Amino acid sequence: MPKIVDHEARRAELAEAMWRVVYRDGAAAATVRSIAAEAGWSPGALRHYFTTQTELLAFALEHVMANATERFHAEDWTGPIREVVQRLLEELLPLDQQRVREMEVWLLLAARVPADPLARTRVAEADDGVRRATELAVTALADAGLVAPDRDVPTEATRLHALLDGLALHALLHPDLMPPDRVRAALAHHLDDLPRATGPSAADTS
Questions:
Q1: Which residues of 144-183 are buried (b: 16+ CB within 10 A; e: fewer)?
Q2: If exposure means fewest CB atoms within 10 Å of the residue's CB, which of 77, 114, 127, 148 is most exposed?
Q3: In this predicted model, what pLDDT tens digit does every residue of 166-205 receive, in sequence order?
Q4: How many Cα atoms are found within 13 Å in the side-chain-facing hemisphere of 167?
Q5: Which of 60, 46, 174 is nearest to 122 (CA)?
Q6: Which segments of 7-152 does DSSP mark as H helices, in order?
Q7: Which are the contacts of 12, defined by CB distance < 8 A and separation ≥ 6?
């Protein structure tokens, strides 16, 4: 009988090998050759699953999103809404080594977006997840009276999304200037500003 190959099990084996390489050496080190060596495979065998570096990075980003979803569902989201929102959004920022490595994968794949449809699709999926999280966060704050009535909720969600992207990039590229405590403080400052009115009445009542 021909040997039956469990492709899902083999992909899971590759995912484990890939994340060992990424976590130990950084996302840029996750090549077909390095992951094949980590998994004890030949590069040729690995190329049956991934023919390009982009496919490998896209596979890695799928696992980033799966890990983030798992962390989200495992978290206890009870407590004051302002604290819960802060914790929710911090899950999307590179504040520890695991999330730094995940962000590195996203950044490497994002660099391929202009020329590669697969990269464009996977990065768009990741960005959609962040967008939904910011919409959820701002809506929850607004429902709790923690967003000023003259602020437009969709606009504030867009601003928050842009802030998260900027904080993530600064934390990844300039960790000496943007350590985790400063990133958390910048996010907290933005959230604390949302209840403040933006129109002329804000100056009149100050």
A1: eebbbeebeeeebbebbbebbeebbebbbeeeeebebeeb
A2: 114
A3: 999 999 999 999 999 999 999 999 999 999 998 765 445 4
A4: 25
A5: 60
A6: 7-25, 32-39, 43-46, 53-74, 81-90, 97-110, 117-143
A7: none
